[in-house]
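Box 3.1. Reading complex inputs
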Amino acid sequence: MSLHSDNCSGASPAVMAAIIRANEGSQQSYGDDTIMDEVRAQIRATFEAPEAAVYLVATGTAANSLAMSISCPPWGAMFAHRNAHVIIDECGAPEFFTNGAKLIPVEGDNGKITPETLGQALMRIVQGDVHSVQRGMLTLTNVTEAGTVYTAAEVAALTAAARALNMPSHMDGARFANAIVATNASPAQMTWRAGVDVLSFGGTKNGCLGVEAVVIFDPAKAWEFELRRKRGGHLFSKHRYLSAQMLAYLADDHWLQNARNANRMAADLATGLGKIGVALRNPAQANILFPLWPASRAQHQGAALMEDRLITSWNTTPADISTYLAAVSA
Amino acid sequence: MSLHSDNCSGASPAVMAAIIRANEGSQQSYGDDTIMDEVRAQIRATFEAPEAAVYLVATGTAANSLAMSISCPPWGAMFAHRNAHVIIDECGAPEFFTNGAKLIPVEGDNGKITPETLGQALMRIVQGDVHSVQRGMLTLTNVTEAGTVYTAAEVAALTAAARALNMPSHMDGARFANAIVATNASPAQMTWRAGVDVLSFGGTKNGCLGVEAVVIFDPAKAWEFELRRKRGGHLFSKHRYLSAQMLAYLADDHWLQNARNANRMAADLATGLGKIGVALRNPAQANILFPLWPASRAQHQGAALMEDRLITSWNTTPADISTYLAAVSA
Amino acid sequence: MSLHSDNCSGASPAVMAAIIRANEGSQQSYGDDTIMDEVRAQIRATFEAPEAAVYLVATGTAANSLAMSISCPPWGAMFAHRNAHVIIDECGAPEFFTNGAKLIPVEGDNGKITPETLGQALMRIVQGDVHSVQRGMLTLTNVTEAGTVYTAAEVAALTAAARALNMPSHMDGARFANAIVATNASPAQMTWRAGVDVLSFGGTKNGCLGVEAVVIFDPAKAWEFELRRKRGGHLFSKHRYLSAQMLAYLADDHWLQNARNANRMAADLATGLGKIGVALRNPAQANILFPLWPASRAQHQGAALMEDRLITSWNTTPADISTYLAAVSA
Amino acid sequence: MSLHSDNCSGASPAVMAAIIRANEGSQQSYGDDTIMDEVRAQIRATFEAPEAAVYLVATGTAANSLAMSISCPPWGAMFAHRNAHVIIDECGAPEFFTNGAKLIPVEGDNGKITPETLGQALMRIVQGDVHSVQRGMLTLTNVTEAGTVYTAAEVAALTAAARALNMPSHMDGARFANAIVATNASPAQMTWRAGVDVLSFGGTKNGCLGVEAVVIFDPAKAWEFELRRKRGGHLFSKHRYLSAQMLAYLADDHWLQNARNANRMAADLATGLGKIGVALRNPAQANILFPLWPASRAQHQGAALMEDRLITSWNTTPADISTYLAAVSA
């Protein structure tokens, strides 16, 4: 058991079973498998978006970068929270896929952009002045890197500010399921109804082996996405294995159940930490906690246990939480 | 059963079993899983290359494009057979990953570059003239797109011509196993001993779900490769599933056995086609055949069966071959 | 006097005088100078294109590459004659500015694409197949690299084939003036009336110091062009000096008079060479000749005089021609 | 007369005379003109750098972007003051030429990076972590965008910090002459002796029509620079006109005399503003002033005169200054 990262957990039995089933017989390659037809229908139903274009890739960085590359020209500014994964943790992948667009860090407490901080950042771009990059797009991460959650209303307010300036909005939903569970918003409410144009819909961290969907609510750029995906080396020949994961993930609310467990375990962990006097840097809203370890405690224990960031997963158990709390309380 | 593409076959039982095993417990993410340590050791042993850098990605286009991006500057010429996958079938991925290097098509019968045709192509580049792209790299596909095979000696002659002009050589080995089986060369003989600097070592088409190794024989560019892989969105968070496939693929000569079956079935198919008067465009050397269907036969039968290209796979059976031959002979 | 290249000639007195005049007083920078207003009006009048967007840059490679970058996406195929400057002589600049689009060489005698050879090249692109680059654009060079000239009707036939496949057309008119003089077409007839969407209108080789106009007949992409020009480092701060050259070039048919001299001198040179038994590889239509020097002659004389390519210029004189003919006849 | 920008001034008589002289006769093209040989020798002498590679381009954005592209890989971080021209005013040109490297804004009062603020910015990059861009390069602007000047000692301290982390340093010297005049440092002291690896040496703003030199003190990357310059469309065919400007600029300390006038006029302007109660945002050290106009004054006068930024030029006269002061004092 690890609270280090949800990337360290394996895949759920349901997802593994789907992979095994998908292995039977021949299937058309490069996304023409019959399972993908089911995935497309299921995502459209889940998001109440019958026109949406749906594509699968295997990594979150690929999903985000490709989504951003169809949303922003090379001379565009991409507004993101200053701690966003796309700024800090992707080694310049958005710059690579957009051919050099510029990420503009936006301030905000608890990992969240606000209309005010977005407004301040927008003013740094001199629209219509050829010497400056131009307004390009907004990208929001939900669950945020700080473990907090945007409500659908908060998302809507930010995308509206972007749209007023003719900018589309992307949501990095690597932990989208946890955000949905945390807010009780419907997938549609959290995305296109809140003004999100493209969503990176994460599966990997929440019980899959490696699959992310890109959901493009306005399909006008679908073909461009397909070409960029191929050109980026992200079109799988034996695509059925991506499809199978995603279909199992969506079936029977598996994605929501997994996230529900992770969020509940994080809440229990937060409660337990509070009882032993460990506060959190940000409110505990989903499955990521940033404990503020007292200096005294660090002296008494091995630092290894006291990670900056604790993440619960689809398979974290109550026993995992109590074992961990016992260890850090010792 | 399909003879349409080896991408339509599933994964072998051994590979599936490895995926299932790898799912147990927690594992470090992003390539730090313990299985990858075994993969690295196993590939170094297989290739007799104890210093080689070894990386895994999920698609052949990613493997090729990343390998080429560490081999050629943006102003370089990349010499490849005019029918090479990197020229025809990757939607410009090599151009994208190299930031605009230029693929120079090289002529050659049966899908193979010769020292003569390579020499002619090299003369088209005015080295030292700033108006022209400069000599960059050589890339060879083995098995070729024509279903033929370069011997290790042929590879060595071509890479020597490249090296004489300070160009490194890459091998697109999407079907490397089939080339090894066809030539009886050792992996070392076919690659670094023959002057190959970087190899795309395919697993997907030959019994895996989706995994390709990039083997960099001179590890000086290993760190650059890691950064480019991440930046390209090709570093898997739950990397263990790539590692598990590759480890099973290498174990007990599984990769060679799979390829041996495919090559044998193709030979049987070629013999059978010959008996009913269907010649082949290129010599049958591995697992790809290009039948020259007589016009008369096309009139009597559905064209669907008579594909331009027939490919056998790790799981093609003698019964598949006889069924197919019976159908096209009807 | 040099017949080596029209890049070795200086600037005409009229152009130099304009530069000197432009130096007086202050002027707004970055293209907002008042001279540019006159240039824009003059080019629109010359081309009978009151809506055209007009921009100035200093090199032909910049003009071509920027023009191509607004005409073709990164995954597009750019069709050009196999000897075109954009393929052979620009060190991959079109690939750089388009972010990796692919130049497809088209065959054709005398440096000219024909509807047949264009058709053959177009068939090499599998439109709608995500594995292949997609049809992007056509680019024609007039005067061609072989010294031949497309008539307006020939241009129209080729751009119509492109347009039928939804491809825009660009003309590399580094020697546009010489083509106009050679064909007696009007600028409008040779360009937008013949289906050309963007023109690189050369001044440098024909009496200027260094200026090329990019004329965009459909101005929808004008703002994108401005951003790409700035981003490419091609927006001049003291832009007045580009404007002044172009204005003098256009005034009083200076551009046509210069080209008329060059074409006439080339015709005289061709006649003179014929008289001493030297044939030409291509018809002499503009200001470039490719003499087929007899082997016997090469033995008697220094090879230096007998260049592969002879180019006349705006300031080549009858005396230059007779001196040269005398020298090679000696 | 304009105090709006030094880009609005014309060229000096000496530079114009050189252009006119250079127009005589034929010259080799593409940088092989004999004048360039003199420029190279002169710059090497001026900078006491007999091995330096020297190239000319026509715009500051081209000089900076090309210089940065040979200094930083695509996955590198480029550290620059947050108000630097390369961050704010070049529409993403550095990102374009470096293929997507990331500009990291560094804080600092008066437009100047300090060792402390540089240290803070450097800590934001997790070197050796593949998820983060890696330390790439440092770029300093001298004269800064705030009109202040780095001393040679300040430059040396910053480049030493960069070098300690294996990063090369670039100087954007669009107003290098003004910095030399302001500090009395020698060109060598301000550049390679202070750890600068590549210099953009500006001519345009200080009396030329349009020419900037890129001086590469370690010529190992000279050939790469040449290829990138060509590929960027920045190699002039009639290169003699760039050479002529630069040669005249360097002759007889013309560049220093021009800057001396500009700096002196700015000092006079600062004094005059002080006398009428207008303070400056930053110390007046070179030729750029940022007046802090009192609100009361703005009500009495047209806002047009009271620009945020005042810039003096090589040809600003004492009469210009007194006229301006009289106008804003009225």
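In summary: The longest strand of chain A covers residues 134-141.
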